[in-house]
């Protein structure tokens, strides 16, 4: 089965006065078939832009774009590869415990 990585926003921390989102907590789910087998979570702090998108107009897609830009391509790739590696190890373990009798 193909492993898919699903990026989601867990929560936002914002300033009430102007809606400026200063911190984003995200998660990335590693899904094998229809089963979630691995997860990564993290957070990024965002610099205040010159022009704010009104809080009520934010979408998950927009905020995920900010998160991935802040992390950078190399870090996004590393997070996704880590999930793939974890799932591969779950699916084809290389170690076991127990006794032969």
Question: Largest beta sheet, briefly?
Answer: 3 strands, antiparallel
Amount of beta strand: 25-35%
How many H/I helices? 2
The averaged pLDDT comes out at 96
Q: Calculate Rg over CA atoms.
A: 18 Å
Residues in helix, %:
25-40%
Shape: elongated
Report the end-to-end length measured between terminal Cα atoms.
34 Å
Note down, in words, how this protein is organized.
The protein is of the alpha+beta class and 101 residues long. Helix content is 31%, strand content 35%. It is built from two helices and three strands. The protein has a three-stranded antiparallel sheet with strand order 1-2-3, with helices on one face. The protein is elongated. The model has no long low-confidence stretch (mean pLDDT 96).
List the helices and strands and how they pair.
Layout: E1 3-14, E2 21-32, E3 35-45, H1 60-71, H2 73-91
Antiparallel strand pairs: 1-2, 2-3
Short description:
With 101 residues, the chain is α+β, with helices and mostly antiparallel strands.
Top keywords for this entry?
101 residues, 31% helix, alpha+beta, 3 strands
